[in-house]
Design goal:
Order of helices and strands: EEHHHEEEHEEHHEEEE
CATH superfamily of the largest domain: PAS domain
CATH topology of the largest domain: Beta-Lactamase
Strand order of the largest sheet: 2-1-5-4-3
């Protein structure tokens, strides 16, 4: 901790080695100089106000933080505590100050603030992404439910995952719960299957028939089929 003893006109009377290290001067360079020669202008204004209040007895001591530019260009963040020493007969003798180097602490706090800001920004972005995904999901679900075309979504094994109301109405399949989890063979047992060229599709080649397009980017593939389902007249 840097220690310094100042006269009432703010000349440096005595300094320790740590004070010299902090300010970037030798003891010989500091002794006898006025403190104002070492302070930036804004710090001088605050310092003068505090000195007047201390000399009039309105303030016992003062504590403040300030930035200090050393002669070598390094910036320090210092905490200064200053007291006025009084004679027992009631007149002031000298100022005594001790200085703490808060540069590392200040840097850590700034880095922490940056990290917290980044974390908050990441959380906000993630929340926005979730909300956008939910909004898109809600929109797609609304389209799926209300579109006039029949839509059936099933996995690579032909098990029905989703089926909309239009498909159940067109194919007379009843409630959604009665359709989900069934295979195409079970669900459309009473139908024959034809492709766009009106060629009959046997069950063994369905749903891997070329008229079906498979999405290979997911383990549960969605199949987009261009198939026409007609009642099997032999089953009627």
């Amino acid at each position: 901790m840097g220690l310094v003893c100042l006269s009432l006109d703010l000349s440096l009377l005595q300094v320790n080695e740590r004070y010299c290290q902090l300010l970037g001067y030798t003891e010989r360079e500091l002794l006898g100089r006025r403190l104002h020669d070492l302070l930036p202008v804004d710090a001088q204004i605050i310092f003068n106000m505090n000195v007047r209040q201390m000399l009039t007895g309105n303030m016992q001591n003062v504590v403040y933080e300030m930035g200090y530019a050393r002669p070598d260009g390094h910036m320090l963040w210092l905490k200064v505590t200053r007291s006025l020493v009084w004679h027992p007969q009631g007149f002031p003798l000298y100022f005594f100050s001790w200085i703490e180097d808060l540069t590392l602490q200040q840097r850590c706090e700034q880095e922490r603030d940056v990290l917290l800001a980044c974390e908050q920004a990441a959380r906000t972005a993630a929340q926005q992404a979730v909300e956008q995904t939910q909004s898109l999901s809600t929109m797609l679900q609304a389209i799926f439910k209300n579109v006039a075309d029949g839509i059936v979504v099933y996995d690579r094994d032909g098990v029905v995952l989703h089926i909309n109301a239009a498909a159940r109405t067109l194919l007379e399949l009843g409630q959604e719960a009665d359709c989900l989890g069934k295979t195409y063979a079970d669900l459309f047992e009473g139908y024959k299957r034809y492709d766009e060229a009106m060629e009959l599709i046997p069950w063994k080649s369905f749903p891997s028939h070329p008229c079906c397009r498979r999405s290979r980017s997911r383990s549960l593939a969605f199949l987009i089929c261009a198939c026409i389902f007609l009642p099997d007249m032999n089953a009627i």
